[in-house]
Amino acid sequence: MSNRVREIKRIGVFTSGGDAPGMNAAIRAVVRTSLYNNKEVTGIYHGYQGMIDNTVFDMKSDSVSSIIQQGGTILKTARCMEFKTVEGRAKAYENLKNAGIDALVAIGGDGTFTGAELFSREHDIPVMCIPGTIDNDLNGTDLTIGYDTANNTVIEAIDKIRDTAASHNRIFFVEVMGRDSGCIALNAGIAGGAEAILLPEKDTAIDELIELLSDAAGRNKSSMIVIIAEGDKNGGASNVAKRVNEKFDNFDIKVSILGHLQRGGSPSSADRVLATRMGYTAVNELLKGNTRSTIGIRGSEIVTTPLEEALSKKEIKLNEDLVEIAKIMTI
Ligand code: ADP
């Protein structure tokens, strides 16, 4: 086998799985870095589904004009069951080959990366992945694209909830996104001055929570905010509020589920720059001959990690220092 880097002529780019603000900035960087290096670019709509349905188009520099500030993804995203089958992936590969696409940049989460790794091995096509998810739950990076924006959105909502909570002596139970990851909840809890934070990674008993709230009430707090990650084992904000209310009835109890608004909005400056750096690096790595890796950031440095390694690790990424700090800040 020769060590020569395989020549890439046309790079396909797509977004897949859950959308996140900043994905557009990553697409823009992939397109412009490719064009700068005299490579052609194909945009693939609807993630893996678009490969199977052949919904692709040639991208030029102006295809990505004025999108850096837009939330969502101009390439759309989808979940695609057919891609999980050998036949589905074979059909996708046939379409890519016919379109002259000889390398891929995938922007998405864990599922997207799993599909990309498999596809790249099966059909010998180079692929680089870019972590885009508001959950910040991927290995190989300290931060994912969209996480900073989601945190800012959540904190804006909590500040508003605090205003109304303080006017009425209320306890608000605010549910934020994070089925398996408490990153947003922990961050929002600290930045929003929450009285308690319930995380999927930790078991907080309802009795423990009530004790905490009783103590806080005893210190004459006029409002209390409890942040609950949707994956908390007590079953979400409505359940927690109901169970607390049964034993703690001197406060007016309200529930607010922030839901999908956390996924939207114009990306923050930090997410735009992160996405741009990652998109740029993804293309350069492909052109250097790197494949089956994910782009990440460690400290302030952009790094790559083999997908196999990133996908095999399942360690909890919660920052224990932050958990401790959050507790101390509630006294
Ligand atoms: P995310 O990328 O945000 O984690 P999903 O888990 O829905 O979102 O994955 C996105 C898509 O990746 C799936 O709809 C599917 O098409 C593809 N995918 C996920 N897991 C696999 C797998 N094991 N094999 C092949 N494709 C997969």
The CATH C-level class name of the largest domain:
Alpha Beta
**Share of helix among residues?**
40-55%
Structure annotation, total helices: 11
Using DSSP, what is the number of strands?
A: 11
Which small molecules are bound?
adenosine-5'-diphosphate
Average pLDDT score:
94
Strand order of the largest sheet: 3-2-1-4-5-10-11
Shape: elongated
Distance between the termini: 64 Å
CATH topology of the largest domain: Rossmann fold
**Structural class determined from secondary elements:** alpha/beta
From the 3D coordinates, which CATH architecture of the largest domain would you assign? 3-Layer(aba) Sandwich
Instruction: Give the biggest beta sheet.
Output: 7 strands, mixed
Q: Regions with pLDDT < 50 over 5+ consecutive residues?
A: none
What radius of gyration results from the CA coordinates? 22 Å
Compact summary:
With 331 residues, this protein is an alpha/beta fold. The chain has 2 domains: 10-146 and 267-312, Rossmann fold, CATH 3.40.50; 149-263, Rossmann fold, CATH 3.40.50.
Describe this structure in words.
By secondary structure, this protein is of the alpha/beta class. It folds into 2 domains: about 10-145 and about 265-310, Rossmann fold (3-Layer(aba) Sandwich), CATH 3.40.50; about 150-265, 3-Layer(aba) Sandwich (Rossmann fold), CATH 3.40.50.460. It is about 40% helix and about 20% strand. The chain contains 11 helices and 11 strands. It has helices at about 25-35, 45-55, 85-100, 110-125, 145-170, 185-190, 205-220, 235-245, 270-290, 305-310, 320-330; strands at about 10-15, 40-45, 55-60, 105-110, 125-130, 170-175, 195-200, 225-230, 250-255, 295-300, 300-305. Strands 3-2-1-4-5-10-11 form a 7-stranded mixed beta sheet, sandwiched between helices. Strands 7-8-6-9 form a 4-stranded parallel beta sheet, sandwiched between helices. Strand 7 (about 195-200), helix 7 (about 205-220) and strand 8 form a beta-alpha-beta unit. The mean pLDDT is about 95. The chain binds adenosine-5'-diphosphate. The site of adenosine-5'-diphosphate has 17 residues, from helix 4.
